[in-house]
């Protein structure tokens, strides 16, 4: 990779395979990339995405949420310490499957992004593809938005529509939306980083 001086330092939070995380890392390999993924954090030490990130040369840390019980803020305090140690400027949630508390959300207000598999404000929360099919929608898609205390309620940064075709199931639709996510998220993150750098 060429010099990363001046790039926005991004941490990606994951809970699983991390395919969106991998797309973000791959995109920042470009010589003119506006951000650099400097850390990948998971709440699950067994998350497959951790090995993927390491294979791409990105530092990783696993902070298992289980020992913290119901004390989500204490778990997030340990995450915050890792973010500070890595001089992170922006957080990208990529399949992070825990609801964040005000402890972390408020500290990163305006600097934490998430990708959601629907065209928000339609279908916040879970089962988005089944809900779109049940409603008879002509299209589904994905949204990158800023994270606020409300679930999937933050300001929308960018969206990508995906047509629903005859015979679609939640599984087939999810696969096509995920492919769209891999293009949308790096683009939206780059645009966001350009804005905060006033480029």
Automatic annotation (TrEMBL):
<dbReference type="GO" id="GO:0004644">
    <property type="term" value="F:phosphoribosylglycinamide formyltransferase activity"/>
</dbReference>
<feature type="binding site">
    <location>
        <position position="114"/>
    </location>
    <ligand>
        <name>(6R)-10-formyltetrahydrofolate</name>
    </ligand>
</feature>
<feature type="binding site">
    <location>
        <begin position="18"/>
        <end position="20"/>
    </location>
    <ligand>
        <name>N(1)-(5-phospho-beta-D-ribosyl)glycinamide</name>
    </ligand>
</feature>
<keyword id="KW-0808">Transferase</keyword>
<feature type="site" description="Raises pKa of active site His">
    <location>
        <position position="152"/>
    </location>
</feature>
<keyword id="KW-0658">Purine biosynthesis</keyword>
<feature type="binding site">
    <location>
        <position position="72"/>
    </location>
    <ligand>
        <name>(6R)-10-formyltetrahydrofolate</name>
    </ligand>
</feature>
<comment type="similarity">
    <text>Belongs to the GART family.</text>
</comment>
<comment type="function">
    <text>Catalyzes the transfer of a formyl group from 10-formyltetrahydrofolate to 5-phospho-ribosyl-glycinamide (GAR), producing 5-phospho-ribosyl-N-formylglycinamide (FGAR) and tetrahydrofolate.</text>
</comment>
<protein>
    <recommendedName>
        <fullName>Phosphoribosylglycinamide formyltransferase</fullName>
        <ecNumber>2.1.2.2</ecNumber>
    </recommendedName>
</protein>
<dbReference type="InterPro" id="IPR001555">
    <property type="entry name" value="GART_AS"/>
</dbReference>
<comment type="pathway">
    <text>Purine metabolism; IMP biosynthesis via de novo pathway; N(2)-formyl-N(1)-(5-phospho-D-ribosyl)glycinamide from N(1)-(5-phospho-D-ribosyl)glycinamide (10-formyl THF route): step 1/1.</text>
</comment>
<dbReference type="InterPro" id="IPR036477">
    <property type="entry name" value="Formyl_transf_N_sf"/>
</dbReference>
<feature type="binding site">
    <location>
        <begin position="97"/>
        <end position="100"/>
    </location>
    <ligand>
        <name>(6R)-10-formyltetrahydrofolate</name>
    </ligand>
</feature>
<feature type="domain" description="Formyl transferase N-terminal">
    <location>
        <begin position="9"/>
        <end position="189"/>
    </location>
</feature>
<dbReference type="Pfam" id="PF00551">
    <property type="entry name" value="Formyl_trans_N"/>
</dbReference>
<dbReference type="InterPro" id="IPR004607">
    <property type="entry name" value="GART"/>
</dbReference>
<dbReference type="InterPro" id="IPR002376">
    <property type="entry name" value="Formyl_transf_N"/>
</dbReference>
<feature type="active site" description="Proton donor">
    <location>
        <position position="116"/>
    </location>
</feature>
